[in-house]
Amino acid sequence: MYDTAIVGAGPAGLFAAYEITLNYPGINVIIIDKGLKVEQRNCPLPKLGRCICPVCHINHGVGGAGLFSSGIINLRPDIGGDLQELVGSWDLANALIDYVDETFLKFGANKERVFEPMGDKFADYQREAAEVGAHLIPIRQRHMGTDGSVAVISEFTRYLEKAGVKFSLLTSVETVERAGDHYELKTDKGIVESKTVLAAPGRAGADWFRDQAKKLHLEVTPNPLDVGIRVEVPKYVMDPLTDLYMDPKVVMYTKSHDDKVRTFCVNPGGYVVVEKYDDGTIGVNGQTYSDRLSPNTNFALLASIKLTDPMEDTIDYGKSISRLATKLGGGKPIIQRLGDLEDGRRSTWERIGRNTIEPTEKAVTPGDISMALPHRVMQDLLEFITKMDQVLPGLASKYTLLYAPEIKYYSMKTTVNTLMETTSEGLFAAGDGAGLSRGINVAAATGVLAAWGILKRIGKPIENELFERLEGNTVRRLPGRQ
């Protein structure tokens, strides 16, 4: 029997295993994931910046769905989640993010590529953004790059294997069930028994976690859904901001609907890529390499959707949008010029061929994005682009390319205490798939917290200054929060 079984080999699962074995080398830990090792996930044509291999496991496998992202770590606890609320202290949350950063550095993250926006130029852009109703958030960031992320997670994995962590890959966990004083995980390869379980399935496992939470009668609340597009412009359009920091975070509450719209995963000189999901639907994402650039910059532009009674399940709603977009695109994402969208016509390859911007992703279908995304979302996105064009001239050019859909799924948010233990004793949750984070940094931090909770649950003393500071606060049950 294992001391703990971790479902998911993304940042939450890896950091949990790291923290457990760091305190107790040789402890009996297993990580179960549907995907492959890092080296086996790596696409055969990475220099093209896109995935054309049907078995590359973009969303599953060691490193999680973020392995092939731009490799940016936001060194702030309220970006990518609300870590300060989980631990009840801004200072402690910051210290945990620094601890996560130190761990990435230990496994080879680039020490030099750190961006910290400050000074008069950044303040000027903040003022200009404020004039159009937007907020430009200052964030210290470390950039590993898509290729750098692969190298870091490979080294991370080798460390865990040497520490005795067992990886059961290409393995699907079907159910998690309580069995007396332990848990049974029914997988497609048999039953795994463990004293404790950490559910860290990542975004690709959001619907799986939702279903397990219902069966186990966990306390959960619905999370918002982020729906939108990936925008691609000439690199020089975004350079004024991305020269200050690589992944600018701009948030706007629209005048039309008072909806939150935000930028996400900015890739200067990057590539748009296709994502394929288990249910047969598709989406888009972006990548940036540390040593090779395209002439374009791309970023996700997302509108947050919150549903209320009678339909609170944002996962099902997001899947319905993804299915429609997949059908309209003939199994490929839809691409459209902004000018064509504004003129109420679909794009064609002929029109895109006359564009001043060449798309970095060609495995797409020219079409009409407004037929796939809800009208309200389209209004929100267009308002953002039009207003921010005053800050970044050229953003609202008729040649700007839009790809759809880009959807970020966050599971039903489970109620946990500060050490990530759910309402089922011995069952812990962490990361995006459990609705407790929205990015690599906070996902990793929740994995560290869960590790301490697991060690405490199985009676193992913990010698860690951050844990001692956390224990100084009351380990409390937190209500589900949007």
What are the defining features of this structure?
14 helices; FAD/NAD(P)-binding domain; 482 residues; alpha+beta; eight-stranded mixed sheet
Describe it for me?
There is one protein chain. Strand 8 (173-179) and strand 9 (182-187) form a beta hairpin. This protein has an 8-stranded mixed β-sheet. It has helices spanning 11-23, 38-41, 83-87, 90-106, 119-131, 146-162, 206-215, 235-242, 314-328, 338-342, 349-353, 375-388, 440-457, 465-472, and strands at 2-7, 29-32, 72-74, 114-115, 134-137, 141-143, 166-168, 173-179, 182-187, 190-199, 220-221, 225-234, 249-253, 260-268, 271-276, 282-287, 296-305, 334-337, 365-366, 401-408, 413-414, 427-429. Helix 1 packs parallel to helix 6, helix 1 (11-23) crosses helix 13 (440-457) and helix 4 packs across helix 13. It is an alpha+beta fold and 482 residues long. It has 2 domains: 2-109 and 144-222 and 412-472, FAD/NAD(P)-binding domain, CATH 3.50.50.60; 225-408, no CATH class. It has 14 helices and 22 strands. The longest helix has 18 residues, at 440-457. The model is unreliable at 44-56 and 475-482 (pLDDT under 50). The radius of gyration is 22 Å and the shape is globular.
